[in-house]
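Appendix C reproduces, verbatim, an entry submitted by the partner laboratory led by Prof. M.T., so that reviewers can inspect both the input and the predicted structure.
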Amino acid sequence: MEDQRIKKRNLLMFPLGTVGRDMMYNLVTSYLLTFVLFTHQLSAAQLTAITVIMVAARVFDALNDPIMGNIIERTRTKWGKFKPWLAIGILLTSVVIYLAFNVQLQGWAFVVFFGIIYFMYSITYTMHDIAYWGMVPALSSDADTRNQYTSRATLFAGIGGMLAASFIPMLTAGNNAIGGNAVTAYGTVALIIAILGPVFLAFTVFGVKEQRNYNDEPVPPLSFRKIISTITGNDQLLWIALIFLIQQVGNGIVLSGVSQTYIYVEFGYEGMYFTLFQMLGMAVTALLMIFYPMISRRITRKKLMSILMVISAVGYVVMLIPGMLLSSGMIKFACITLGYMFANFGQYGFYLIMMISIMNTVEYNEFKHGTRDEGIVSSLRPFLTKMASALTVAIANITYIVFGIIHYTNGIADLEQAANIGTITAEEKATEITTLLSGVQHSQSLGLLLVCTLLPCILMFISYRLYQKHYKLDEAEYDRICAAIAERKKA
């Protein structure tokens, strides 16, 4: 009875904690580059420097994330090994996010500031992200229960992301922008989200009770050799890491800023359009998040991936063909949004399956080497997610430069800054932006659309084929490994 009571409480308190975290993540991953482009006058060299900074920060995480995972493994406090880092990390991240969107600099001074603040974000977000997802194996080793924690946490993460996706575009662009300009709007939104992050994570910090069997184990040494040996000695972890990275690059392209810029140049600089596009595209995934535990008991992961691959492919076709053939208008917007709903449904299903597939390598590691190393194994997921986001940023920035979109974003940035200091009114700004965007050529708009559809579909298919061929920890094999571990402990 006590275990069931704890489980029910954990199933509420644990997922609630990530709502604010994912609002933070969505703000930085999906809108930081948009904020930079539409509020700062940047040369191609400065935009390239920002791209290099973002990629370099993620490469830095190649060391930072596993080291953080190893530090968590060594942590022994009366609050456990996860909760101290949840609290420290979320508070520092809030400060960093506020500064990122509220310090007003231009030119190379801004580029230098951006480099410092972006590296700080990489460090602080890693603290609580690895600690949060690292808790899942410590909450339960039962496969079905773990599926419930994972699917419910991703559901609440989706809610946080959807809330951000719903309000950020609407409140930062167009007639509903806070203060009448993007500069004021993004600063206010960042402040609100910086407050909500710690508030929601408090549910996890104060409400979740995890298993603390690790307190009886000796503290592992802080060792690069241990980090490297854990990762390289787990062949299934290596394969799922590669597969997950490829899939996340494809999945992240749409929300890297390219689709938002496409919708602005194709349908007008009005945040409501992108809000609808994102909100509907994300809302449909709630069905999968809610029913995944039930689906997973009836359909194997590899079979489900085949179904999801077809659904996404259909979605990308529905986005691409009308986007190429129809003139701008609500019918075209409806087709593109409908296609994204199908495409994102499949992509998010892939994400759920790969999250579970990564965590299942904990037991595989214990079976092969006698140690679980949850912190190190869990550290790969946020590292790969950040690497993928860096690569999608690089793809987005290259797209803007190649197709000449930076000319229009610089024009909008000038107008937003003018509205911020009161040189022009919000109404004059809107008129000038409409005139500016009327000069975008069809070939430029088509280039953005191809990057949002064709490239994600190709990368998703590559990850699908690799998973089917190389990932061996299906349901039957995982159960066999868990049973073998249980027998070994009895002996």
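The two ends are 28 Å apart (CA to CA). Additional entries are available on request from the coordinating office.
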